[in-house]
Design a protein that fits this description.
24% strand; alpha/beta; elongated; seven-stranded mixed β-sheet; four-stranded antiparallel β-sheet; 10 helices
Amino acid sequence: PFLEIARIMEDGSSQVVWRSQVGSGTNPTWNQDGVTLQKLCNNDRFRPLRVEVLHYNSNSNNVSIGIAETTVNHLLSDNPEESKISLRHPSKKGSQVEGTLTISSAYVKPVYTFLDYISKGCEINMVTAVDFTASNGNPSNSTSLHHITRYNNNEYQRALTAVGEIVLHYDNDKFVPFYGFGGTYHGSVSHAFPLNDNPGTPEVYGMDGLFETYQRAINSYPLCGPTFFAPVINKAVTMASEMKENHENSYVILLILTDGVIHDMAQTTDLIVRGSNLPLSIIIVGVGQADFSMMEELDADDIPLRDNNGRKMKRDIVQFVPFRQCSSNVDLLRREVLAEVPGQVTEYFEMVGMKPGGWQ
């Protein structure tokens, strides 16, 4: 059997607004679930609702077992007697009870938005990392993804501007730790080096700082390789860990700009799974025409990531956007970025039981 709830409209018709999973046996128990008040009753707690238990039939129409009418106000009652709803068969006359539906738990939980948290003092902290591997091509060559001209911005510059402006809008102080990875830094390959050449203070200020620092760095640090994400993700994870311990209203957003395949998938996956328990989101923007299948895997929209020990990620924290699909439409790129990140922020604070403004 399964349970169905429909709201009764002003004209007497009904609209199904929630359906349970299919239970088993003649005395099924259904799992706790949720639905918004807007969808359930249009925020009217006295609006009539039809609850119906049906027998699931995979080969033909489902068969009604019992039906009753109630309201949200009734479902929320503290009276134990009102938690029991008598079900009657829809085609039988009289008051014969076919069964009883017992409501074991019903409550209204506030649903907070990203802007609710921001307006109550949530502080966004942006971190940025740029791919300095040789697969991007020599910056002096016009075919390079890092080639800079006086008249046109390259893909890295355009992606940095488009996404950076969105995140920086919410960033608390506009100071952004800015790293390169896969480049030669003072004679040796580094996978997390400060693009301002200041290891102690890798922050640059605002969009102008990011843009100008990138332009200087691309001509200062030779491209090399391979492509490792783990070192820069580890910096963001470390920062998010410190924020969780000492600044519970803070949230870290790491922006990675890259041209494709990575060579430390296992280590990267482990860190993402660890980071899923922290105030952290990772935006990966793929530039160029490379194979981004690994980025899609990290995005984990379909299959949750598991670390080397089999632990599953607590929540999805990665958003991958291929720049080539949005290169001619900056607004589309921004929409793609905003499609998941605000929800990731609210999901984290809900996970740790933090209401907007509830921090110390």
